[in-house]
Amino acid sequence: MADSTFGLVVHGGAGVILRQDLTLELEAEYHTQLEASLAAGYGVLEHGGASLEAVVAAIKVMEDSPLFNAGHGAVMNAEGVCELDASIMDGLTLDAGAVAGLQHIRNPIALARDVLERTPHVMLIGDGAEAFARQVGYEFVPNEYFQTERRRRQLALARELEAKPGGHRPAGRKERVTFATVDDNKFGTVGCAALDRKGNLAAGTSTGGMTNKQYGRVGDSPIIGAGTYARNATCALSATGHGEFFIRSVLGHNVSALMEYKGLPLAEAAGEALRQLEELGGTGGLVAIDRLGHVAMPFNTPGMYRGCRVAGQAPVVEIFGAEYRAQTIRS
Amino acid sequence: MADSTFGLVVHGGAGVILRQDLTLELEAEYHTQLEASLAAGYGVLEHGGASLEAVVAAIKVMEDSPLFNAGHGAVMNAEGVCELDASIMDGLTLDAGAVAGLQHIRNPIALARDVLERTPHVMLIGDGAEAFARQVGYEFVPNEYFQTERRRRQLALARELEAKPGGHRPAGRKERVTFATVDDNKFGTVGCAALDRKGNLAAGTSTGGMTNKQYGRVGDSPIIGAGTYARNATCALSATGHGEFFIRSVLGHNVSALMEYKGLPLAEAAGEALRQLEELGGTGGLVAIDRLGHVAMPFNTPGMYRGCRVAGQAPVVEIFGAEYRAQTIRS
Fold it and tell me: Which CATH superfamily is domain A7-320 in?
């Protein structure tokens, strides 16, 4: 399988992302960052590096950018603190690493990878995850490193909406959740799926979760089989959106199972899994790549920050989705 | 679907459970507790109660018993603290609740159910999960409530083994994990899957994890799609074993996908999913029930505490598995 095709696909979140809400300048910045993320991952793959390595490289770029809801620039929870989750999976070995509830680790995706490679475990949470980080020599950053003025304003807005009649959230029924809890309806999780020259797939996801989320809430990003999944026989993918629905529909493994057990090609499997998610009421999207280098980037929201670069093809970076409904199999 | 068949299946963990290691008295106690768990769940179903209710009732009995690794009698982590995880899923709505890293909640399965019913979230971890418990009026118990003399001895033994040359664990490669970390090779997670008279399926799982586990380590029990899964169209199931492998193989959803997408009957799907888990190197088992009341209880370890009771059939409670290999599709 040496020197077969290779490539990667990235996302920076899906949601109500409308052209009229973005200045041309901000739109250009998103393009620049998505291109930088693709370039970082592609560089690894081009030089024969492993897909796992490319996934970490691509995601780190987005974690370090204030534009995305991961690492620096992550959204704040109801206590005004950034809590970070990430996961990564190796499609060759089906080995995986995940972390949740981090408050002091600059690049959560790097720690997820160290959980994969340096512990017998898959998932470490909270103080325990940070104790492991300390043990393997991570530098700790203050929580303020992640916090930005933009996210502070979003939290203030979410709290304001929550205080309005009918907008109160704690311990209410699920129906009572307000959009104030979902990052003013824009999600910004980041992720990457990659295929390397050896034919190995890998995927990873990193997030700050939802603005004003309940302290301790974990979404789909650190859940193997939900927000992240990779399997050489089928595909590698990373999801973004309203995480609870992605957990309940086990979206990542569902795409893979639709390919493996029903024989669907990647694009159809991804579309069908998204349709099932939509049936539950879920919104969001995913990026995926299969072992032949086919790419899928379906979403059922107005926009998704996304891009892909496959060897021999022009790189693609897109934000809006005029035909976003047509990208699911609903068309 | 009113007054169709109904029933439930429970487990109290799988592992190296050998007849020669159990006194007749202890064996009888396990039988008594498994029967009590079945009776509690069956009582709910018989009176027309919901499968979700039956799952909670059956699991609470095992959480309250010191015999099992859940609630009172949970194993201790490397710091000598009991950390509890649980999850539950409703096969009708695909709604789910999960908690991880609890230290003061008597019945984790009850809190998982409250996350399902009373929050917009699926998963809450650590202090955040306990803050939610406080908010909805849970009584807090000291961590000592969960700790038993038997588990203290197991922890001491695990630490002793770890201190031996070659047995050192922290930050080592996955290959270096010793059996000292896996409850001296006996797992004791508890779980239940149930079918009610309305044809609705539900499943739940509760655990203390692994003896001497790294602080913050989360296994498959609170992961929807791994240790717990329920879907009216296919089956409900709860898994037990070396959790990392169950997460990596997304075991719960895999059984369901094999039924839905490949058309396999429950027993074959459960066997095939277990075979795939075994290929990764995983050991353990699962209990499952489908919407027709068919039950499967496969495992690839010498024993699994298990039982089932389906309307119109004699209740079954078993521990050992002379023919345990034959119960997977390897036979």
Answer: (Glycosyl)asparaginase (3.60.20.30)
